[in-house]
């Protein structure tokens, strides 16, 4: 009997190996940017090349080693090579790293341990073990944010800031287009962990935007501070709004009691945490709603756009979902802690906020701006070099966003004082100056020496689908 059981187990094991082998062979014939399928394997020890990596970095970069040693990766026997190993023909293979295998002062400095590695770890690399997460992330606004801003942002399309200002500001969050020069990563594009980075393997984004290396902590990504790296300031103060809200207040008081390290897909409100964080609402699973790495899901309004529209109607990046379906998902998240009446009234207020912003503030201002252009009183060749263009931009990009975000995330101070209150002042000043130009038939003052308007207006190659 035992002999028969062993035969069956051996047959099943062989079948698992065969399936993995076949899927790998098929995958090799597919488009190069598709995520790699999971391969199930059991290893009793690290390969000697991985031991060499760890031993060297433990000495040369002790903080990196310590970070990795405390990670779930380390406990699962996932080493430097599992993430950094590259194919020899990859364009970002580090030629400089090969010199490490020619050292006479290190026990592993020989060609026996030589492995091609790349510094930039991409979502395609992560998809070797996390294929579902990589697919979800690839279709999100996060992964495609660099393409989005090149479609809509006058700072880039009109060259109104310098390339260096973009590197230190815009592209730090939105991502660069990685390039190589003489076999090395271009310092103008690296280091960068922007959420929409275009990688040399064709994938978009960087998982370490949220799960910073080399701990790759699920706890870190679940805390609001992870999102607050980029979502802060006058134009999208989500972290400030969250901390003002009741959710943020509870997190501040009780966050040290949350079970931050629950396994993915099991993190449960009322059990592991008392009030949600950004990740709880927008990414984590809850109730019947599955975990996702596509932050475009669960949204029923595109509240960051100039005119608020449904996500599937946002022309720069139409969502491949329907707003009603996604609203029901978010409602299901809310209902884990709130009653139905509370949730319905929250959305009723959000919808009214959107209506009043669109109809009372944005549409009249946009109509006036278009009239000034049509009358030749504003110049369309550039943007931001005339005061009314700045006023129009900040009406939607600053105060208008804050009013909408404040209502969506239960931040009353941002909905009113930083939102509609400031909108009223900006709106009134815009209309006053616009009407004066029309009455006098006078062209607006144009700043000829607008500072540092030297940025390239050429869209990056490879970013937009042909």
How is this structure best described in words?
With 466 residues, this protein is an all-alpha fold. Among the domains are: 50-85, no CATH class; 296-453, Hydroxylamine Oxidoreductase, Chain A, domain 2 (Up-down Bundle), CATH 1.20.850. Helix content is 47%, strand content 1%. It is built from 19 helices and two strands. It has helices spanning 2-28, 48-60, 62-69, 72-75, 80-84, 123-126, 131-138, 145-152, 154-157, 163-174, 218-222, 224-227, 238-244, 246-254, 278-282, 323-334, 340-374, 387-408, 412-440; strands at 180-181, 184-185. Strands 1-2 form a two-stranded antiparallel sheet. A hairpin with a 2-residue loop joins strand 1 (180-181) and strand 2 (184-185). Helix 17 (340-374) runs antiparallel to helix 18 (387-408) and helix 17 (340-374) packs parallel to helix 19. The termini are far apart. Mean pLDDT is 90; it is low at 1-32.
CATH superfamily descriptor of the domain at 296-453: Hydroxylamine Oxidoreductase, Chain A, domain 2
Strand-pairing-aware structural class: mainly alpha
Assess the beta-strand content as a share of residues: under 5%
Read across the widest sheet, the strand sequence of neighbours is: 1-2
What's the β-strand tally? 2
What characteristic shape results from the CA principal axes? globular
Which series of helices and strands comes N to C?
HHHHHHHHHHEEHHHHHHHHH
CATH architecture of the domain at 296-453: Up-down Bundle
Report low-confidence residues grouped into runs of 5 or more.
1-32
Number of helices: 19
CATH level 3 topology of the domain at 296-453: Hydroxylamine Oxidoreductase, Chain A, domain 2
What is the highest CATH level, the class of the domain at 296-453? Mainly Alpha
Q: In whole angstroms, how far apart are the ends?
A: 62 Å
Major β-sheet, in short? 2 strands, antiparallel
Helix content estimate: 40-55%
Average pLDDT figure: 90
- From the alpha carbons, calculate the radius of gyration and give it in angstroms: 26 Å
């Amino acid at each position: 009997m035992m002999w028969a059981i062993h035969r069956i187990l051996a047959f099943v094991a062989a079948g698992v190996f065969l399936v993995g082998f076949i899927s790998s062979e098929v995958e090799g014939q597919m488009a190069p940017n598709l995520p790699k399928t999971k391969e199930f394997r059991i290893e009793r020890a690290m390969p000697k090349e991985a031991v060499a990596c760890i031993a060297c970095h433990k000495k040369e970069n002790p903080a990196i080693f310590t970070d990795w040693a405390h990670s779930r990766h380390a406990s699962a026997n996932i080493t430097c090579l599992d993430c950094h190993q590259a194919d020899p023909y990859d364009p970002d293979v580090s030629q400089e790293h090969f010199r490490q295998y020619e050292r006479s002062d290190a026990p592993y400095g020989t060609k026996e341990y030589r492995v091609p590695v790349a510094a930039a770890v991409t979502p395609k690399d992560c998809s070797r073990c996390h294929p579902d997460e990589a697919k979800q992330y690839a279709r999100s606004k996060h992964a495609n944010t660099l393409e989005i801003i090149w479609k809509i942002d006058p700072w880039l399309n009109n060259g109104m800031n310098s390339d260096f200002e973009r590197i230190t500001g815009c592209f730090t969050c939105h991502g660069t287009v990685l390039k190589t020069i003489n076999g090395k990563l271009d310092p103008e594009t690296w280091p960068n962990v922007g959420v929409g980075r275009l990688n040399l393997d064709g994938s978009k984004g960087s998982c370490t935007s949220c799960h910073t290396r080399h701990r790759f902590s699920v706890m870190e990504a679940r805390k609001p501070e992870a999102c607050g790296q980029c979502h802060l300031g006058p134009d999208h103060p989500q972290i400030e709004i969250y901390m003002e809200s009741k959710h943020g207040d509870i997190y501040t008081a009780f966050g040290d009691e949350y079970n931050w390290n629950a396994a993915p897909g099991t993190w449960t409100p009322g059990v592991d945490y008392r009030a949600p964080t950004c990740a709880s609402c927008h990414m984590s699973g809850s109730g019947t709603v599955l975990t996702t790495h596509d932050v475009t899901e669960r949204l029923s309004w595109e509240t960051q756009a100039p005119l608020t529209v449904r996500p599937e109607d946002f022309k720069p990046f139409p969502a491949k979902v329907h707003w009603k379906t996604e609203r029901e998902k978010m409602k299901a998240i809310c209902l884990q802690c709130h009653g139905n009446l509370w949730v319905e009234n929250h959305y009723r207020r959000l919808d009214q906020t959107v209506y009043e912003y669109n109809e009372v503030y944005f549409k009249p201002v946009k109509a006036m701006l278009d009239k000034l252009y049509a009358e030749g009183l504003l110049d369309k060749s550039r943007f931001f070099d005339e005061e009314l263009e700045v006023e129009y931009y900040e009406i939607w990009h600053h105060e208008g966003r804050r009013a909408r975000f404040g209502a969506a995330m239960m931040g009353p101070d941002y909905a009113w004082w930083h939102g509609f209150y400031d909108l009223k002042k900006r709106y009134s000043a815009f209309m006053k100056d616009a009407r004066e130009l029309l009455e006098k038939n006078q062209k607006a003052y144009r700043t000829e020496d607008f500072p540092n308007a030297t940025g390239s207006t050429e869209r990056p190659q490879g970013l937009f689908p042909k």
